[in-house]
Amino acid sequence: MYRYMRSVKKNKFSRHGVLKSAKAALNDINQKQSMHTRSPFGLFALLPREMRFRIFGFTPLSDLGQLSLTSRLLTDEVVNYIHSKDALPAIVPNIQFRSEQESSELFINAKTEYCWNHFKDLGWEDDEKFKAYLAIKGASCLDDRIRQVLRSPPGSQPWYERYIRVFCREIFLDKASDHTERGFWLCKILKPWPLVFQARLIYILYGPVNDENGTVAWNVLQSCPTYFGVEDAELMDLADALKILHVYCDSKDWNEDDFISVFEELTGTPSDWCLENIAKLLKLCGESVCFEVLGNKAMNGRVHELSYLGYHLGQVLGQDDMMYGKGNGIQCFSNTMRQVLAVMPSSKDQAALTSSLFNVWEENILSLGEGLQEDLDVTTPEEQEQ
């Protein structure tokens, strides 16, 4: 009896010991799982790297990209996986070649290999681009430099202006793959600032520069070196930027009123441009931008300004006809002026613009004749005979 009771007690304690050890092991496993769950690797921490790479191999690339955003350690792990041999079957799938034998004058009995259905469109979303822009802008203190330049008179901070121009164009604008992407970057650079500062910033980014040191040339467009304005190369970058803003920018970020306001501020930066240069800028911007600007002036009753600008626009377009022999410059001018007259609110305003435009044309023709007469009066009789 004693032996029996002793064996029962022993079995009882042994059973309790097994249960106690099992509970301890289970608690240990739970603690380890909770610890791994709280770690940056999550449950992947329970697995060796080889096993993680095997799991990555069965994971779609889109899901793998989402997984890499969860923590820095997982980002590094996914990058290590991509650079390993295990990732080759998933990242670079086996290309199936298809041979075709074709007869031609140049290639007879030649086999051409084709890659079939192995192309993928690359790119990134607008919100991803905007996050990248904010990160780069914050790391480079770009806003502080722009703020310092815009609060100072034009040309007083030439090297900061040059820094902003080179930085924005080399990092964002000139690296864009198409006009839509360039318009996105340009809108993000301009939009945080008031309209008057946006115009100055466009001039800093795309305005003419000094040949000696590459700084922004602020006083080039206030004067007119020739009868037809500055050379086209001085205004080509500005015209391309304005066309991108007018055509390719999102309507949520940029509308027609913003464009007109920036154009008006731009042609008055740092002081009013001569009309020949404004006309040349409109010519380089194309018919759409030209009609937008002239039509806005017509609807607001700025007939006097519109008539003089229309005259110089006709001269600039006529110069192209004379130099290149295209013959469509004056036709383009006539079509634009017809469209401008069509948007005017009344026939009285249309008649006033037409009359003013002819008066300006007559005035300039007469002044041209007077200038020629003065040149003839200065010459000597011997020079006239020659």
UniProtKB/TrEMBL annotation:
Residues 142-366 form the FBXO47 ARM repeats region domain. InterPro entries: ARM_FBXO47, F-box-like_dom_sf, FBXO47. PANTHER family: F-BOX ONLY PROTEIN 47. This is FBXO47 ARM repeats region domain-containing protein. The lineage of its organism: Eukaryota, Metazoa, Cnidaria, Anthozoa, Hexacorallia.
